[in-house]
Amino acid sequence: MTANLASTVARHWDTEIVAQLVDYIRVPAKSPHFDPQWQANGHIDRVVSDALAWVRRQPVRGLTVDVIRLSGRTPVLFFDVPATGSIAAAPTVLLYGHLDKQPEMTGWRDGFGPWTPVQQEGRLYGRGGADDGYAVYASLAAIVALQAQGMAHARCVGVIETCEESGSYDLPAYLEALAPRMGRVDFVVGLDSGCGDYERLWATTSLRGIAAGTLTVSVLTEGVHSGDASGVVPSSFRIARQLLDRLEDAATGRVLPAEFHAPIPAERRTQAAQAARILGDSVVRKFPFAGNTRPMVADHTEVVLNRTWRPALSVVGAEGLPPIASAGNVLRPQTSLKLSLRLPPTLNGTAATADLKRLFETDPPAGATVLFTPDQGASGWNAPPTAPWLAQALAEASQAFYGEPVAAMGEGGTIPFMAMLGLHFPDAQFLITGVLGPHSNAHGPNEFLHIPYAKKLTACVAQVLAAHAAPDRADGPATALSRGASAQTPPPAAHTL
């Protein structure tokens, strides 16, 4: 049965899904945060319409699909598949994905580009294929494969949103509006995360939050000749540096204020050490370091913890700085820096953003005008203990389709919908996973989807859906995923979850 699932899924990818994603990549369906005129431009509606047409063509018994539009909000694609077998009264599975994209970014290789799909060595390059256009197609392909093999599954509903890259600010309203149609959800599958390598199934156990906004320092009402003003008027750039020093140790990159840190649970430390043993040097080699640049820490476990449980600051944009070719000898009136502060999974993102604003604006150096304008504050997510049936299903699926033990690790990015879904479905089990592995470079240049990995992941999802529907599944007390995948199939010690 496993071989049949794998071949059915692979055929679906080869005959339909890759072509759909090629067309999807061509559409600059940027999230509303990056395309305020998204309604007039029509790109989001285009990718939703394309996905809708494809879903309608799928040979799934009882499938219904709609585009839901709440006034003034981005659209959501919602599909509903009845349960098969004798489990019609069982709870519902929610499958999540999104179709909106990050902006272009510079640095694409020659012949490649964000809206130029390129297939090369099993990889499909272009913006959004892996983050997260494939999710709706993989979700339906998993269900198609189950039905083709006569394998039972519970009722499955899909919520495919279009403002995830802007913080999923529309999602809570849709979850509320769709609650009567979704019913009691006891299992959530999210395909918008990453994988440590392309050799096994990876379960995401936590996600960092984010506090983001723009720090602006103003010292003049207009630029002044630097020969006249320097030494008298304080530099806005220097004051911005001083303010950043309140937040970050410039020598080490460590975030200083205690309010931006949180205790790391012992089980997450264990998982980090296990992931580090599996991945080895690849935990740092996956990044395209320039020249002799070294990672901030050398120990691989600390690398994993730094990117999953510790706060970290990035300056992701700047204004007030003219291009070098047109920069005159002028003391500039202001400097603006766009900041992204990643937060530990258990911190409240809204409260942390307010703390950041107070940190910068209180008692500004030299009496300069300092303003921090938040544009995103999102909480992270820490997975609940894993039910025995799910731990066993993940272990068996990884062995069946990858031939390697399942692994678990936190992810460093922020997926706001996870905190929302965790609050909305407090008793549900979660499988959060994805295809964003080494060098896949989500949000950056040369983003790609690893097609062979995605095929196997789709088959894994199908098998886990079947395990969820099994009448004799192991429904004992939930445990930490890091304690072992299953009693029947214990992985080697170095790979124990």
Overview features:
alpha+beta, Aminopeptidase, Alpha-Beta Plaits, 2 domains, 4-stranded antiparallel sheet, disordered C terminus
- Care to count the β-strands? 18
So what's the oligomer here?
single chain
What gyration radius follows from the Cα positions, in whole Å? 24 Å
The spatial strand order of the largest sheet comes to: 1-2-6-3-7-17
Total of domains: 2
- CATH-scheme architecture of the largest domain: 3-Layer(aba) Sandwich
Q: Report the average pLDDT across residues.
A: 93
The main pleated sheet reads as:
6 strands, mixed
Q: Outline the low-pLDDT stretches.
A: 482-497
Backbone structural class = alpha+beta
As a percent range, the share of helical residues equals 25-40%
First CA to last CA: what distance? Answer: 26 Å
CATH class of the largest domain: Alpha Beta
Number of helices: 14
Assign the CATH topology of the largest domain: Aminopeptidase
Tell me, what's the shape? Answer: globular
- Amount of beta strand: 15-25%
